[in-house]
Specification:
Blueprint (H helix, E strand, L loop, with lengths): L2 H13 L9 H16 L2 H7 L1 E4 L6 H9 L5 E3 L4 H14 L7 E4 L12 H6 L3 H16 L5 E2 L23 H16 L12 E5 L18 H8 L1 H8 L4 E4 L3 E2 L2 E2 L4 H11 L5 E3 L7 H4 L6 H11 L4 E2 L3 H11 L5 H17 L12 H5 L3 H14 L1 E5 L12 E5 L25 H9 L4 E5 L10 H12 L3 E7 L18 H13 L3 E7 L6 H6 L2 E6 L5 H9 L78 E8 L3 E2 L4 E10 L5 E11 L10 E10 L4 E9 L5 E2 L5 E2 L3 E8 L8 E5 L1
Parallel strand pairs: 1-2, 1-10, 2-3, 3-4, 5-6, 6-9, 12-13, 12-14, 14-15, 15-16, 18-26
Antiparallel strand pairs: 7-8, 11-16, 17-19, 19-22, 20-21, 20-25, 23-24, 25-26
Helix pairs in contact: 2-15, 3-14, 3-15, 4-5, 7-8, 7-17, 8-10, 13-14, 17-22, 18-22, 19-20
The chain binds 1-deoxynojirimycin.
Length: 751
C-alpha cells in the first residue's frame, strides 16, 4: 500500500470518518462539527436521525410535529408543499434540542413538474448531456418546494422487459447505464450540492433487484459474484465516484441474503472497496420485510441485521425507532456503529448546506415550474428518445401532399398516460399530446380527423375500431398511437405477456386492411412484442412514455422537422418466451448459425436428432425482433476505413481508433456511432459483444467526417477466474457500427 494511503487511513481513523478522498479544510471542519454534535446527542436523538417517515403516514400533523421536536425524525419523504416543508423544518431547527435540520426526500424520477421521458427513453437518446441537463431541471423544480433529496437514478440493469420497473432504468447495458447514471448524479447534485437548487441523488436499488426471477417484482435473484461485479455493480461504482450522496438498498434477496441485511454489499463492496462516504437508506419497509423473507424473526432482529449490515436510515418500517434503544442496551448493537451511521447522515446534511440554509423560498416555485427552457429541453429529450423501427418511405409525412389525416388510437390524446410511471407531481393540464400538437401545427393546412377507436390501451370494444376504419377510408394517411397506459409499467406492474393489448392489435390490423399508409407510434414503458403490428405498419416509431412535451416532439418527427436519432437501450424480443434475451450474453459452445431447422421444417415422425446442434428455439430461432443499439433515420450512414493505430497494445496503453462516417442520405441527421468489443478467449467465458463507447455525430447530407476515438486498454478489464479485475492478454475483436449487430470486426491484441 502506498505510504500516502496508509497515512490517510491513519488520519481518517483518528478523525473517525470514512475516508472517501483527501480531506479538504472544509471537510475537516465539517467532521469536527459532526463530532461535536454527536457528543451532545442523546441515544434517542441519534436513533431519531436514522428514522425516515412519510409526511402523510403519521396520521395527524400534531404527531409529526411533536416527533420532529423531540428529535425522533431525521428525514421526511413525500412533502412537496413549501410552506409545510418550512413549518416542519422550523420545528426541527428552532424547537428541537440540537436544531438538526430534516432532509426532505421525494421520488423525482424523470422530472418534477416538467416531465421528461421515462429513464428508458432517456437512455434511448444516448445523450448524457441532455440527461444531465434534465436532472438539473428536475432539481431546480423539486428544490423549489423544499425537496433536497431524490430517490433517483435507478441503476438496475434490466434484462427482462416483463419486469415493470425496466421503465425506470437505462436498459440492459452496463456501460450505457453507468454513463447515464453519472450524468443524472451530476445533474441533480450540480457542481455544489449546497446550492439550494441542488438535491442529493440516491442511487438504487443496491443490488441486483432487476434480475428478479421471471421478471416478477420483489422476487429472489441468483446472481453469482462474477456476474454481479461484471454487469450489475459497475454503474453503482461509477455513480459513487461521481459523488452520489446516498444509496438505497433493494427489496430482493440474492442467493438467500436480502440486500437490506447484506454486509458483503454494504460494507465490503460499498464502504471498503469504493470508499462511499454518503449514507445508505433502506427501501420502503425493506428492514421489516426481512421477516417475510424469513431472514429475520421479528422487527428487532430485522433492525439488528440492517444496522449491522450498514443501513444508516430506516425508510418507513419504524424498526429502528422502536427497537434500537433496547438492542443497544442489550449490547447487540454497539453505540459506535450507531455513531457511524449518524456521521454518514449528518455529513450529507452538511454537504447539502441544510444547516446554513434550511428553508425554501415559498414563492420560488412560481417562476420555476414549467419554465420555457425546461419545456424546451423536455421536448429535445423526447425528440431524441424516439426510435424509428421501420420506415418504407412513408415517413416523414409531407404536409403539402396530405389533405386528410386520420389520428387514432388510445394514446393519441392521453395526457396522463404519456407521462409514464412514477409521476406524482407532473400534471395533465401542462402536457401536450400528439393530437394537440398535430392540430396546433397542421390543423390550418390539413384536415385532421380524430377517432380514438379505443378509450384506453386495454379497451377491446369493436365499435370504435369500426368508426376508425370508416374514417381511414376517407383519409390519405393514418397515424395510430398505441402502446400501454402509464400504470402498466413501473413498480409491481409486471407482465407475463408483452403483446400489444388485443384491441389495439385488432385496430392496427383493420387499418392496414383499408390500404392507406399506416404509421404506428407506440408509447410504452418497456419493449412490447410487436412483430405483427410492425408488419402491418408502413412505419413504426417507438416512443418510451415521452413526458410533458411528447406531443410536439412526435409531431416534429412525423412531419420531418426533426429526424429520428434514438437507438434501443434494450433488446426487443419477438415473443416473451425468448426472455431473457440481451445482446451481451456470454459465448456458448454452440452458437446459433441462422440455418437451423425450425419447427415448420421438421417432418412428421422425425427420428431423434439434435436438429442443428446450436442454441435456439425451434419456433423462433435465436434472433430478437430488434437488437440493442438499433434505430433508423430518415437519412443513412456509412462507416468506412475503421483503423486502429496498432495491432498489439500493452495493458497500460490507449487504443487509438479512426473511422470515416458519411451521411449518405438526404437529411441532416444525427447518428449514434457505437463501439463494441469481444474478448475472444478468457480465463472465464466472455460476452459475444460489449458496448464500450458511443457518440452522437451530426452530419449534413453527403458530409463525411473522420472520427478519432480512444479507448484505454484498462476498459477491457473484467473479473477473471480468481475474481480479480484484470485485462487478460489475447485477441480481441472490435466493431464500430450503428447497432449491436452490424459491421465487420477489426482484430487487435493485448500483450
Ligand atoms: C419503493 C421503491 O422501490 C423505491 O424505488 C422508492 O424510491 C421508494 N418506494 C420510495 O417511494
Amino acid at each position: 500500500m502506498p505510504l500516502k494511503k496508509i497515512f490517510l487511513i491513519l488520519l481518517c481513523t483518528s478523525l473517525s470518518w470514512s475516508c472517501a478522498q483527501e480531506q479538504t479544510g472544509t471537510d475537516r471542519e465539517t467532521e469536527k462539527k459532526i463530532s461535536r454534535l454527536i457528543s451532545q446527542m442523546t441515544l434517542e436523538e441519534k436513533i431519531g436521525q436514522m428514522n425516515q417517515i412519510s409526511s402523510s403516514n403519521m396520521g395527524m400533523d400534531q404527531g409529526l410535529a411533536e416527533a420532529i421536536e423531540k428529535g425522533q425524525i431525521g428525514s421526511i419523504l413525500n412533502e412537496v408543499d413549501p410552506a409545510r416543508v418550512n413549518t416542519y423544518q422550523k420545528i426541527a431547527v428552532e424547537r428541537s434540542r440540537l436544531g438538526i435540520p430534516l432532509i426532505v426526500g421525494r421520488d423525482v424520477i424523470h422530472g418534477f413538474k416538467t416531465i421528461f421521458p421515462v429513464p428508458l427513453g432517456m437512455a434511448a437518446t444516448f445523450n448524457p448531456t441532455v440527461v444531465e441537463q434534465g436532472a438539473r431541471i428536475a432539481a431546480r423544480e423539486a428544490t423549489a418546494t423544499g425537496v433536497r433529496w431524490t430517490f433517483s437514478p435507478m441503476l438496475d440493469i434490466a434484462r427482462d422487459p416483463r419486469w415493470g420497473r425496466i421503465a425506470e432504468g437505462f436498459g440492459e447495458d452496463t456501460y450505457l447505464t453507468a454513463v447515464m447514471g453519472e450524468a443524472m448524479v451530476k445533474g441533480y447534485q450540480g457542481t455544489d450540492p449546497a446550492d439550494p437548487a441542488s438535491m442529493a441523488a440516491c442511487i438504487k436499488h443496491f443490488a441486483g433487484y432487476s434480475a428478479a426471477e421471471g421478471g416478477r417484482d420483489y422476487n429472489s435473484t441468483f446472481i453469482p459474484e462474477r456476474l454481479l461485479r461484471n454487469v450489475y455493480l459497475p454503474p453503482f461504482q461509477k455513480a459513487v465516484e461521481a459523488g452520489a450522496l446516498t444509496l438505497m438498498t433493494s427489496f430482493n434477496d440474492n442467493d438467500g441474503v436480502p440486500s437490506t441485511g447484506n454486509t458483503f454489499l454494504l460494507r465490503n463492496v460499498l464502504r471498503d472497496e469504493w470508499d462511499f462516504s454518503g449514507f445508505v437508506v433502506s427501501d420502503w419497509s425493506s428492514v421489516t420485510e426481512m421477516i417475510a423473507h424469513g431472514f429475520a424473526k421479528d422487527p428487532g432482529h430485522a433492525a439488528d441485521l440492517a444496522v449491522n449490515a450498514g443501513v444508516d436510515m430506516d425508510m418507513m418500517s419504524f424498526a429502528y425507532i422502536t427497537h434500537l434503544p433496547e438492542l443497544i442496551k442489550e449490547g447487540k448493537i454497539s453505540e459506535k456503529l450507531i455513531d457511524e451511521a449518524i456521521r454518514n447522515i449528518l455529513r450529507v446534511k452538511f454537504r447539502l448546506g441544510l444547516f446554513e440554509n434550511p428553508y425554501v423560498d415559498e414563492n420560488l416555485h412560481k417562476d420555476v415550474f414549467y419554465a420555457p427552457d425546461h419545456l424546451e429541453l423536455a421536448k429535445q429529450t423526447a425528440t431524441e428518445s424516439v426510435v424509428m423501427l421501420k420506415n418504407d418511405g412513408t415517413l416523414p409525412l409531407d404536409e403539402t401532399r396530405i389533405k386528410t389525416l386520420l389520428v387514432t388510437g388510445p394514446m393519441a390524446d392521453a395526457a396522463h398516460d404519456q407521462l409514464g410511471t412514477w409521476v406524482f407531481d407532473g400534471e395533465e393540464h401542462a402536457t401536450i399530446t400528439p393530437l394537440q400538437a398535430i392540430r396546433d401545427a397542421y390543423g390550418h393546412s390539413i384536415r385532421i380527423v380524430y377517432e380514438p377507436a379505443l378509450s384506453h390501451s386495454r379497451d377491446n370494444s369493436p365499435a370504435g375500431i369500426r368508426k376508425a376504419v370508416l374514417a381511414a377510408r376517407r383519409a390519405d394517411a393514418v397515424l395510430v398511437f398505441a402502446g400501454e397506459e402509464s400504470i402498466l409499467s413501473g413498480e409491481a406492474h409486471c407482465l407475463a405477456n408483452l403483446d400489444l393489448q388485443e384491441g389495439q392489435s385488432r385496430l392496427i390490423e383493420a387499418l392496414k386492411a383499408v390500404g392507406k399508409p399506416v404509421i404506428t407510434v407506440i408509447m410504452a414503458g418497456r419493449p412490447l412484442t410487436i412483430e405483427k403490428e410492425t408488419t402491418w405498419s408502413n412505419a413504426v416509431l417507438y416512443s418510451f412514455h415521452p413526458g410533458t412535451m411528447g406531443g410536439p416532439a412526435l409531431a416534429d418527427l412525423i412531419f420531418g422537422l426533426e429526424v429520428p436519432s434514438g437507438k434501443l437501450p434494450v433488446t426487443f424480443p419477438r415473443s416473451s418466451g425468448q426472455i431473457p434475451l440481451y445482446y451481451n450474453h456470454n459465448r456458448t459452445g454452440r452458437p446459433f448459425l441462422g440455418n437451423e431447422t425450425l419447427l415448420k421444417d421438421i417432418p412428421p415422425k422425425a427420428g431423434q436428432t439434435s436438429l442443428g446442434n446450436t442454441s435456439f428455439y425451434l419456433d423462433l430461432g435465436a434472433d430478437p425482433l430488434f437488437p440493442f443499439g438499433y434505430g433508423l433515420s430518415y437519412s443513412a450512414f456509412a462507416y468506412t476505413n475503421i483503423t486502429l493505430d496498432k495491432v498489439s497494445y500493452g495493458k497500460d496503453e490507449v487504443i487509438g481508433l479512426t473511422f470515416d462516417l458519411t451521411n449518405t442520405g438526404k437529411y441532416t441527421a444525427t447518428e449514434v456511432a457505437q463501439l463494441y468489443i469481444c474478448d475472444k478467449t478468457g480465463s472465464v467465458t466472455r460476452p459475444v459483444k460489449e458496448l464500450k463507447y458511443f457518440e452522437r455525430i451530426t452530419l449534413n447530407p453527403g458530409e463525411s467526417r473522420t472520427v478519432n476515438w480512444t479507448l484505454p486498454v484498462s476498459e477491457l478489464a473484467f473479473r477473471d477466474l480468481n475474481m480479480d479485475l484484470t485485462v487478460e492478454p489475447g485477441q480481441f475483436e472490435l466493431w464500430v457500427a450503428g447497432d449491436s449487430v452490424s459491421g465487420d470486426p477489426v482484430l487487435f491484441e493485448v500483450h
